[in-house]
C-alpha cells in the first residue's frame, strides 16, 4: 500500500507547513494587537500551531511502515490533524493574512 503511505506522509508534510505558517501569523498578530484578550487568544493559537507543527515533524522523523488496519487508523488521525490545521489557516487567511 505505497499510495496510502504517500498520502499519510503528504498530509503530515502539509500539516507541518500550514502549522508553521499559522504559528508565524498568530505570533505576529499577538505582537500587533493592543487588546489583551486578543493577545492571549493569538498566543494560545500560536502554541496550538507550534504543537501541531512539532507533532507533524516528529511523525515525519519517526515514520515507519505499519500494516493494514494500522495504516488506516494513522490516516484517520493524520487527516483530522490536517483538517484542523487547514481550518486554522483558512481563518488566518480570511482575517487578511497573505502567505
Features of this protein?
mainly alpha; 3 helices
Could you walk me through the main structural features you see in this protein, from its secondary elements to its overall organization?
The structure is a single chain. This protein has 99 residues and is mainly alpha-helical. It has one domain (2-95). Helices cover 86% and strands 0% of the residues. It has three helices and no strands. It has helices at residues 2-32, 36-62, 69-95. The longest helix has 31 residues, at 2-32. It is elongated, with a radius of gyration of 15 Å. The model has no long low-confidence stretch (mean pLDDT 83).
Outline of this structure?
By secondary structure, the chain is mainly alpha-helical.
Strand % is under 5%
Helix content: over 70%
Number of domains: 1
Order of helices and strands: HHH
How would you characterize the largest beta sheet? none
Task: Enumerate how many helices there are, as a single number.
Answer: 3
Kindly name the structural category: mainly alpha
What is the global morphology?
elongated
- Radius of gyration of CA atoms, rounded to a whole number: 15 Å
Write down the oligomeric state: single chain
Which regions contain 5 or more consecutive residues with pLDDT less than 50?
Answer: none
Amino acid at each position: 500500500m505505497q499510495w496510502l503511505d504517500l498520502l499519510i506522509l503528504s498530509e503530515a508534510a502539509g500539516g507541518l507547513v500550514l502549522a508553521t505558517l499559522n504559528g508565524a501569523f498568530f505570533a505576529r498578530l499577538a505582537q500587533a494587537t493592543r487588546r489583551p484578550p486578543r493577545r492571549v487568544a493569538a498566543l494560545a493559537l500560536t502554541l496550538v500551531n507550534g504543537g501541531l507543527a512539532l507533532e507533524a515533524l516528529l511523525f515525519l522523523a519517526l515514520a515507519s511502515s505499519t500494516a493494514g488496519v494500522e495504516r488506516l487508523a494513522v490516516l484517520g488521525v493524520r487527516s483530522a490533524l490536517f483538517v484542523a490545521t487547514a481550518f486554522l489557516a483558512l481563518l488566518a487567511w480570511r482575517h487578511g493574512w497573505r502567505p
